[in-house]
Amino acid sequence: MGRKEYREIGLDLDGNQRMGSWEIKEIVDLSLQPGKSVTERFLKELPEGARSAEVVVKVSMWPDPKTELVVERVERRVTFE
Predict the structure, then answer these.
(1) Could you give the CA distance from residue 81 to residue 78 in angstroms, rounded to a whole number?
(2) DSSP string computed for 26-37
(3) pLDDT of residue 62
(4) pLDDT of the residue at 32
(5) 8, pLDDT greater than 70
(6) Measured distance between the N- and C-terminal CA atoms of the chain, rounded to whole angstroms
(7) Cα–Cα distance list, 69 to 39, 45, 58 (Å)
(8) How far is CA 4 from its chain centroid?
(9) What is the value of pTM for the model shown?
């Protein structure tokens, strides 16, 4: 099983410019190959003092640039201290 880790486009952990959205297509392959499982981590900085976050995960197929087919969508509220 593969594993990938992503950060918010354009920012590093200190909030500094890391890469532009136009550059990510050359760096990260976001496709999921047929019959393969992939574990991924997406790092998102939250405002200081945040106690919860709503997480939405959506898996889509794009048969052409204008057509999105949503395969699955999951929403969860995560609370932490």
Answers:
(1) 10
(2) HH------TT--
(3) 78
(4) 67
(5) no
(6) 31
(7) 21, 29, 10
(8) 10
(9) 0.49
36/80: higher pLDDT: 80
Which amino acid, residue 24? I
Enclosing H/E stretch for 2: strand 2-7
The letter for the amino acid at 36 is K
For tokens 């087919």, name the residue. 69
Q: Are 63 and 71 in contact (CB under 8 A)?
A: no
What is the rounded (10 degree) CA torsion for 64, 66, 69, 72?
110
Q: How many helices, marked H, and strands, marked E, lie in the chain?
A: 1, 4
C-alpha to C-alpha distance for 31 and 21, rounded to whole angstroms:
17
Domain extents in the chain:
2-79
pLDDT in tens, 17-39: 666 555 555 544 556 677 777 78
